[in-house]
Design a protein that fits this description.
- The chain has 247 residues and is an alpha/beta fold.
- It has one domain: Alpha/Beta hydrolase fold, catalytic domain (Rossmann fold), CATH 3.40.50.
- The chain is built from nine helices and eight strands.
- The chain has an eight-stranded mixed beta sheet, sandwiched between helices.
- Helix 3 packs across helix 4.
- It starts with a helix and ends in a 5-residue tail after the last helix.
Length: 247
């Protein structure tokens, strides 16, 4: 990286815009890292212990290419706080749209990890996206969409192959942008059949790629591979190819 590029990157990180968005009695904590490119990535973390920090390595790497990004902590996570049971799959989708509108951004790409991947897929029908990046994607039956996280939600998704009738397959079949699916070979949460079927469903995509990381597990996949030299270049090359062409 040149000295001028280093200065630009440092300046961008120092001037990141942090903001809070009112939503259902909570404040969604978010930040935007500005980039000089017209491209902009919006990121949605997963459930469990997921939060905005899981995207730090990727977002900083994108800044090296002048690509900005926005991410936020969903209700029940990170600085937003609150109880996980206050939210649902549909609520997370609505939270994401609230952040996008408040920040006045027009994402060209949405990236979702685990549960966030399902939110990303559904957002592709609400936003004029040019690309989707799905990392260890969790996919759900529409029956679970508006059920608050908790015992009732768990009962639905723990049914054998509950994801098989997901609306994700049809939505991706209509998606015409670029698609990148990143899977973990030894994922004990998401069966490999799911990312493989997502890739196969995207028959209208302008480009599509399925990247399976050997010997990798579900938890923390993105920051782990970006921290390993043997995988960082491969993952970043695939991410850059998945992003829209610069005008």
């Amino acid at each position: 990286m040149t000295a001028s590029k280093k200065m630009t990157l440092t300046h961008s990180l120092a001037t990141a815009s942090t903001f809070a968005v009112p939503f259902s009695g909570r404040h969604l904590h978010a930040n935007t890292l500005p980039g000089e490119s017209a491209l902009h990535l919006f990121a949605i973390h997963g459930g469990g212990a997921g939060n905005i920090n899981i995207f730090s390595g990727l977002r900083h790497a994108l800044l090296e290419h002048d690509i900005g990004s926005t991410a936020f902590d969903c209700i029940g996570h990170g600085r937003t706080g609150g109880a996980f049971a206050e939210s649902s799959l549909l609520s997370r989708q609505q939270q994401a749209m609230s952040v996008i509108r408040h920040a006045n951004i027009a994402p060209s790409t949405v990236l979702g990890i685990s549960m966030g991947a399902y939110n990303a897929i559904r957002l592709s029908e609400m936003l004029p996206l040019q690309s989707l990046i799905l990392v260890v994607p969790g996919i759900y039956t529409p029956e679970a969409l508006n059920v608050p996280f908790g015992p009732a939600f768990s009962d639905i998704i723990r049914q054998p192959r509950s994801w098989a009738d997901s609306d994700a397959w049809e939505i991706l079949g209509r998606f015409r942008g670029r698609l990148l699916v990143i899977a973990a070979e030894k994922d004990g949460v998401i069966p490999l059949e799911i990312p493989e079927r997502l890739y196969a469903s995207a028959t209208s995509a302008s480009e599509r790629e399925l990247l399976v990381i050997p010997d990798a597990e579900h938890r923390g996949l993105l920051p782990i591979v970006l921290a390993r030299p043997q995988w960082r270049d491969a993952v970043m090359n695939n991410v850059m190819r998945a992003l829209p062409e610069r005008q």
